[in-house]
Specification:
By secondary structure, this protein is mainly α. Helix content is 74%, strand content 0%. It starts with a helix and ends with a helix. It is a multi-pass membrane protein.
């Protein structure tokens, strides 16, 4: 074991990029960090009693620069992990770094008027969003369980604080406490799982874990060390399942969504879920590729766990959402259902190495989900005045008639969430379910096809509660008069989200191509997956040549 570890370390050292080039891996994260540090200095000189809108716009510009840096580095990935095997610089990491930056920027645009209405217009709010995005960026590129866990906590802790930022609102304080307590428990599970993996393999580097697990599986210590590793895999999966709000780790979601500031809910529903899936893909594809760990119908590996969680999340999320009267609570349960849809793609794409390229469906779905969901929460933020916030379905009465722009944006977002063409959400679900059916046809495993059928049926059930929003906005009488928070930020966020949702639904080719390029440039994969990537790369180049 020791000689093998030394050999692997020497290999990593020889493959390491030239000194200086490795710093490119931290450019997006460093940009957001520098913006946060500059933000602290600027906020010190803020004149009391004046709006802090300029700080919000400064943060948005910084996040925009970080997203632009991902595009600049798109054609400059590094083949080996940097900083002694801690970080990857590949298109997969850059894709999620850009997505987290865009999600954070859109959430910040929705925030200034809401904060002023609640007399909480404080610079710390935007600072917390910036630090959370920093953690997301480093988590997307983590090549080691320790760097991943640290980034995981840097992402999570600011979200716990943001959930309770409206401290005079008892529901916000309750949301923060529940999210913190349950989040700390899930983090403890993940950390304990990491400790078990280290105990079994003697390393926390993802690629080295895979190599040492191969040794444990065939060596004399299989029954002792390998069993410890299997339990560690289960605990790590539990930590990720909490962040994506999959059943049965979903119990925090409804109360946290209901009590948190509306822009924060849009941020945590999209960026946190996306980065959690990025980390889950990275860890399980790179570190746990063994068939004995992966399992499959039904060897009780992590594919079987993902399969079960997917089915339960789709059913419970949609069924319970049907009976909700609070709009944010309904969107919370729909978020659980969307986690189930994403787990359908995760299960199908990673059941066998030859289906790895189907992960591009997950990436496209996350982009579509981000714009559609933030668009809906931007509308709710626009009507988020303290004491007069739109919360229940009855509160929506006639708002679509009185405010046509808000009604149009909400309609686009709702159609996308329900999977109705020509929105991006329709194509996202189509690609996810098609990948499951394709894998089922190739493997003759009806379980995949059955999971896709369950997803379609539960999605159809979800149309009822989604369209209920539009029925109240356009067809039900007005029960209360609401004064909107007339601010430019939410309007800009709404327009961007609505246009992107329609654009991705009508012209998805470029977005699909970017998702495919991100999956094809996925570092650290085992040889079996790399062979699939090479075939996919050759097919893509041939298609581009034609």
């Amino acid at each position: 074991m020791t000689m093998q570890l030394l050999s692997t370390l020497n290999t990593l050292a020889m493959l390491a990029p030239p000194q200086g080039a490795e710093f490119a891996a931290i450019v997006p994260g460093i940009i957001v960090t520098l913006v946060a540090l500059a933000f602290i200095i600027i906020d010190v000189f803020h004149r009391k009693g004046t709006p802090r809108d300029y700080l919000a716009y400064f943060s948005v510009i910084g996040l925009g620069v970080a997203a632009a840096s991902c595009w600049y580095l798109w054609d400059s990935p590094l083949e080996a992990p940097t900083f002694f095997g801690m970080l990857y610089l590949d298109r997969f990491a850059l894709f999620f770094s850009a997505l987290a930056s865009i999600s954070g920027a859109l959430a910040i645009l929705c925030s200034p008027a809401v904060l002023r209405s609640h007399k909480m217009d404080r610079g710390e709010y935007y600072l917390l969003v910036l630090f959370s995005v920093t953690g997301m960026i480093f988590m997307a590129g983590s090549a080691d369980l320790l760097s991943l866990f640290i980034a995981f906590e840097v992402m999570s802790i600011p979200i716990y604080v943001l959930a309770g930022f409206l401290r005079e609102d008892s529901r916000s304080a309750e949301a923060s406490m529940k999210y913190f307590v349950l989040g700390a428990f899930s983090a403890a599970l993940m950390l304990y799982g990491i400790a078990m993996i280290y105990g079994a393999t003697g390393t926390t580097n993802l690629e080295m874990i895979a190599q040492n697990l191969y040794y444990l599986e065939g060596g004399e210590g299989q029954h002792q060390g390998f069993g410890l590793a299997m339990f560690g895999v289960l605990l790590i999966f539990s930590g990720f399942a909490f962040k994506v709000a999959a059943v049965p780790f979903h119990i925090w979601t409804p109360d946290v969504y209901t009590g948190s500031p509306t822009p924060v809910v849009g941020f945590m529903a999209t960026a946190v879920k996306a980065i959690a899936f990025a980390g889950m893909l990275r860890v399980f594809v790179v570190a746990f590729p063994l068939d004995s760990l992966r399992g499959g119908f039904f060897g009780y590996g992590w594919i079987d766990i993902a399969f079960a969680l997917s089915a339960f999340s789709m059913v419970l999320g949609n069924v319970v959402a049907l009976v909700q009267n609070n709009v944010k609570r309904m969107l919370a349960y729909s978020s659980i259902a969307h986690a189930g849809y994403l787990l359908v793609g995760f299960t199908a794409a990673n059941a066998h190495p030859r289906f790895f390229l189907h992960n591009d469906a997950i990436l496209f779905y996350l982009v579509a989900y981000t714009f559609g969901t933030i668009g809906a929460f931007a509308v709710l933020s626009y009507f988020g005045r303290r004491g007069e916030a739109v919360e229940t379905f009855e509160d929506l009465g006639q708002l679509g008639i009185k405010y046509p722009m808000m009604g149009l944006v909400m309609a686009v977002s709702i159609f996308s969430a329900a999977g109705i063409p020509p929105t991006a959400g329709f194509l996202g679900k189509f690609y996810i379910f098609r990948s499951a059916i394709d894998v089922g046809m190739q493997t003759d495993e009806f379980a995949f096809i059955g999971l896709a059928i369950l997803g379609v049926l539960s999605s159809v059930a979800g149309v009822y509660y989604y369209l209920k929003v539009l029925i109240y906005m356009y067809m039900k009488p007005e029960k209360r008069v609401f004064r909107p928070l007339d601010h430019t930020g939410p309007k800009v966020a709404m327009v961007v989200c609505a246009l992107m949702t329609l654009y991705l639904g009508l012209f998805p080719a470029r977005a699909v191509e970017i998702a495919q390029e991100s999956v094809l440039d996925f570092s650290g994969v085992p040889a079996s997956v790399q062979a699939t990537i090479d075939l996919g790369q050759a097919a893509l180049e041939a298609a581009q040549a034609e």
